[in-house]
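hiii, so i know i said id send this last week but things got crazy w the move. better late than never?? heres the sequnce for the chain we talked about at the cafe, plus the structure i predicted for it. fair warning i was half asleep when i ran it
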Amino acid sequence: MKKTILVTMIHDTSTFSGPVNKYYATIDSLDNFDVDISATAVNLDPTRLKNPKRIKTTTIKKRFLISDFLLMWEILRNRSSYVYMPLAFSSTFLLLVLAAKAVGSKVILHMGDPLYLTIKNMQTEVKQRVKLGVLVWLVTGLSKYIEWILLDCSDYIFVVSPSMEEDYRKITNNKKFIKTVFNYVPVRPEGKLDQRFEEIRKKFKYIFIYFGQIQSQIRSYEKLIDIFSMIKRSDQCLVFLGPDKTRGNFQKLVAHNRASDRIFHFEPMPKNRALLHLEKTDYHIIGPSPAYAIPNKFFDAYQVKLPMLIPDNLEDVKNIFDGLVITYKSEKDLIQKIEDIENCKITIPQKKIETYAETMERFFSETLGFEKR
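okay and structure toks below
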């Protein structure tokens, strides 16, 4: 009997291509099975999302519901949306899930950063906005209960890191199907190197790269600028590849440290072209991150076998990426590691990390019993 799948995604304008790629990877995986697909996407800025590969008249009377629950808190536009955004997303999903359960559908839920962490980060950002205190308190309380209901209503729950899986097992008393599925959607490196990047590659023996957004909320970019201003070696440089969200503070800091001859910034580029630049660098530097999930940039580095310098408290990353990581304990330790980089041991992992599409296909086949076409 042919099964019917409703694939839906809700996310905000702060997300990169990761959620969209994962959305299409789910549909691609389902193409191998004897199912009907109804794909929908809810986005605050619909112009940023391509048309889904397959769109039908969407009803909730489906056999399975796959939801990608993503709460991105970093770049919300104004303070009213900043407070209400998590509640709006979680409420929308709750209504969708409850409607699906009401007609007997199975619910497969993908959890991004947990609501409680999203709200915690949000509270940190609005500490100085005294007038919003009561609203934040209300949203925090409501979102927590909504998350509990979502977890309780779901038949299958996918999370994005082993630590998150462990926490959710405690919340649900291990009564639920919970599985870690990494946000690893490979993209083929291709395109053409930026001419300025080629010149940098010829000039410096070692290029260290910071790949991702440069944001005021995450101060690691400031520390990295300070660190590379103190590095004594003249054959090493630092490249930032990603959007500058600091309203000019990044460039001011580089100028203040007189480091424009060894610290460079490149605007964001398509993922396949960005990976081509990652391939041509030597080390990826990862600063402290508030994200609960394992950020996609770790998988990007893994894909091109780019060694990573990471804080030593990222246990999930160390366990998953094995010998490809060099850990540092402090800023002083990081400086020593960079200046003595030749003596840092790197082992290219032999084990293969399962991609998102591969994990989902195995789940459809082994757990849900879908038949191949």
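btw The CA atoms of residues 12 and 44 lie 5 Å apart. thought thatd interest u
miss u guys!!
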